[in-house]
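If you are new to this repository, start here. Below is one unmodified record pulled from the training split, so you can see the exact layout before writing a loader.
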Amino acid sequence: MPRMMDRYQGEIVPFMMERFGYKNRLAVPRLQKIVLNMGIGKATENKNLVEAACKDLMMIAGQKAAVCKARKSIAGFHLREGLDIGAKVTIRGKRMWEFLDRLITIVLPRIKDFRGVPRKSFDKAGNYSLGVTEQTVFPEINIDQVQFVQGMDITLVIDNSSPEASEAMLEKLGMPFRR
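And here is the target side for that same chain:
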């Protein structure tokens, strides 16, 4: 069992039940999935960038990335419907907990001038999103083999939650929020 999952079940669930007054363990907010997303704006010029992004996401997540296609044509962006413009990966289960552990303990501290993640990135359902400016902060990525530096979005989807409960849960898990 991943150590973050073990910690969630052993420490965080009882803490959340006490702090927010949940009567049932199943009512406590829990991490459902983590979605990694790379939007590649320059994919209209160079089709190899989407393949490189998929390869990088596969290295980071440990599973195959899905290619995202444009839904409609926009002439101002030189975009055609059906053109490959991004890649995404949805991580669940044990891989999700292992990724969250790596994100908190290894990746975020490697970011240059890191002062913590913003507290304002929660939506009304309690999901948390953050952006990483380059994929090279992940230890799985070999800097010498990177074709282009690309940012990515990381979304933590949390069930049964509000922004306050999600923030308390993530803070207890060790997410380094700004002071």
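Two things worth knowing about this chain: Residues 3-26+39-173 form a domain with the 50s Ribosomal Protein L5; Chain: A, fold (CATH 3.30.1440.10). Helices lie at 3-20, 48-61, 93-110, 163-173.
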